């Protein structure tokens, strides 16, 4: 009996190839997927990692062995796979390990219409059946149909944003040798954009830098190139191109919170009074701006499963996270960094000022960024921090996701990692000295243990 406990995570499947994840295992997971969700057909896409085509083919073999058909969309970004599951109304499997190093691969599974599958919504059952071995299917094997949906995906995204009024823009895009190199040329086709490509060659060994723009060192090449060519904006995508990071014309990063606020304002202009989701680590400016524009901000825990659940529950038009995941009701509540990027291009191109000026109103506070501290006892350390702050004047405390402490001039959140003995700290203040004072006090408590 297989043991898949090391590779089946809370929301996806991920592991080292071939030690943890190989074709036989993936074939069994494909068969189990069909049995558990009762699929008649499954959309399968894959990224540019060397192991992805063979793993995707093995999964398809497991699906068809159970009598279900496969729609093979080939090379795909994760949000392109989500588009396919929405357009075709079929469940899907995306082979990617996102921003993980080259030796990793994985599977993101969803139901029809990009509805997420996690431990509580089918993944535990899929794991259990795959571990036991899926019984042979007595009926006829399913078929495999190859379909190229890239142009349909690009056209659909462009239909959701009015790009007709934008001025010519010079745009540097760093694809990090990931799937942005596959999708960006088609999505940007016909726009008044002078595209300056960086690392568009599909290469799952990531020869230039990790395809993880959340790490500042992976933005350096983009920042340099934007200044060097005098670009209006720079965009960086992660490996499977579902997250997008933005830098301004000076090469300075624009926070995902500012992008969340900018896109929220644009969506509220289309649908006044709509609900917007934000996680509890986004800037305090986000709910402030949503309220100022007549919208209804709803705060949620960190993580795409919580965001998507709240999107569905509230009928929200848009949701944003500090990690540069952006969710759209009109995209089946799924995340697409590409659609967020088109919104930013439209907002920038509809006015004459530079991006730094455009986003200035959305960046009202100073943030620390996420700081990880290794601790022996997560809960004891959180309790020590809570004790130090809870009784102060003007302070409120909540525990929606870790510990959040708020004051009129600052706030911080301290969350335990689910996989490592780490606490993740995010601090925001009215100015840099306020933020740094709170940050340093919390870190001193954590250091004392």
Automatic annotation (TrEMBL):
| Single GO MF annotation | phosphomannomutase activity
Any idea where the Alpha-D-phosphohexomutase C-terminal domain is?
370-443
Is Cytoplasm among this UniProt entry's keywords?
no
Name of protein: Phosphomannomutase
InterPro entries annotated for this entry? Answer: A-D-PHexomutase_a/b/a-I (IPR005844), A-D-PHexomutase_a/b/a-I/II/III (IPR016055), A-D-PHexomutase_a/b/a-II (IPR005845), A-D-PHexomutase_a/b/a-III (IPR005846), A-D-PHexomutase_C (IPR005843), A-D-PHexomutase_C_sf (IPR036900), Alpha-D-phosphohexomutase_SF (IPR005841)
Question: Which Pfam families does its entry note?
Answer: PGM_PMM_I, PGM_PMM_II, PGM_PMM_III, PGM_PMM_IV
Q: Tell me a GO biological process for this protein.
A: carbohydrate metabolic process
What top-level branch of life does the organism fall under?
Bacteria
Q: What CDD domains does this protein's entry cite? A: PMM_PGM (cd03089)
Name the cofactor(s): Mg(2+)
State which Enzyme Commission number(s) the record gives: 5.4.2.8
Q: Which keywords are on file for this protein?
A: Isomerase, Magnesium, Metal-binding, Phosphoprotein
Domain Alpha-D-phosphohexomutase alpha/beta/alpha span(s) in chain numbering: 6-131, 152-251, 259-365
What Gene3D superfamilies does the record point to? Answer: Alpha-D-Glucose-1,6-Bisphosphate, subunit A, domain 3, Alpha-D-phosphohexomutase, C-terminal domain
Q: Which organism is it from?
A: Carbonactinospora thermoautotrophica
Q: What class of enzyme is it?
A: isomerase
Q: Which family does it belong to?
A: Belongs to the phosphohexose mutase family.
Entry annotated with the keyword Repressor: no
């Amino acid at each position: 009996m297989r043991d898949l406990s090391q590779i089946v995570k809370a929301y996806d499947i991920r592991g080292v190839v071939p030690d943890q994840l190989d074709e036989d295992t993936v074939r069994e997971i494909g068969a189990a997927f069909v049995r558990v969700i009762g699929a008649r057909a499954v959309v399968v896409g894959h990224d540019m990692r060397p192991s992805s085509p063979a793993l995707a083919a093995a999964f398809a073999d497991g699906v068809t062995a159970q009598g279900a058909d496969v729609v093979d969309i080939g090379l795909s970004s994760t949000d392109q796979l989500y588009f396919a599951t929405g357009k075709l109304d079929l469940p899907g499997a995306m082979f990617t390990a996102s921003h993980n190093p080259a030796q990793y691969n994985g599977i993101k599974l969803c139901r029809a219409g990009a509805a997420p599958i996690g431990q509580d919504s089918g993944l535990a059952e899929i794991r259990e059946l795959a571990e036991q071995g899926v019984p042979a299917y007595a009926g006829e094997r399913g078929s495999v149909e190859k379909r190229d949906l890239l142009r349909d995906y690009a056209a659909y995204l462009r239909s959701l944003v009015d790009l007709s009024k934008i001025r010519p823009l010079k745009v540097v895009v760093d694809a990090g040798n990931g799937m942005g190199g596959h999708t960006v040329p088609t999505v940007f086709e016909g726009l008044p954009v002078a595209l300056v490509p960086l690392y568009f060659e599909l290469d799952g060994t990531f020869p230039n830098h990790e395809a993880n723009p959340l790490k500042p060192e992976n933005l350096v090449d983009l920042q340099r190139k934007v200044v060097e060519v005098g670009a209006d904006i720079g965009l960086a995508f992660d490996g499977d191109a579902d997250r997008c990071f933005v830098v301004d014309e000076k090469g300075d990063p624009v926070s995902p919170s500012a992008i969340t606020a900018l896109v929220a304002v644009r969506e509220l202009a289309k649908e006044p009074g709509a609900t917007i989701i934000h996680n509890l680590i986004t800037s305090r400016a986000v709910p402030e701006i949503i309220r100022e524009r007549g919208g209804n901000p709803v705060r949620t825990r960190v993580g795409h499963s919580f965001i998507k659940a709240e999107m569905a529950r509230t009928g929200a038009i848009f949701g944003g996270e500090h990690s540069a995941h952006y969710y759209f009701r009109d995209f089946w509540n799924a995340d697409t960094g590409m659609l967020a990027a088109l919104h930013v291009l439209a907002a920038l191109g509809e006015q004459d000022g530079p991006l730094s000026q455009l986003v200035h109103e959305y960046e009202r506070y100073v943030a620390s960024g996420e700081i990880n501290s290794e601790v022996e006892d997560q809960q004891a350390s959180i309790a020590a921090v809570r004790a130090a702050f809870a009784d102060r004047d003007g302070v409120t405390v909540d525990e929606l996701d870790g510990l959040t402490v708020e004051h009129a001039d600052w706030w911080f959140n301290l969350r335990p990692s689910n996989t490592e003995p780490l606490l993740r700290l995010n601090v925001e203040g009215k100015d840099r000295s306020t933020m740094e004072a709170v940050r340093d006090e919390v870190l001193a408590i954590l250091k004392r243990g």
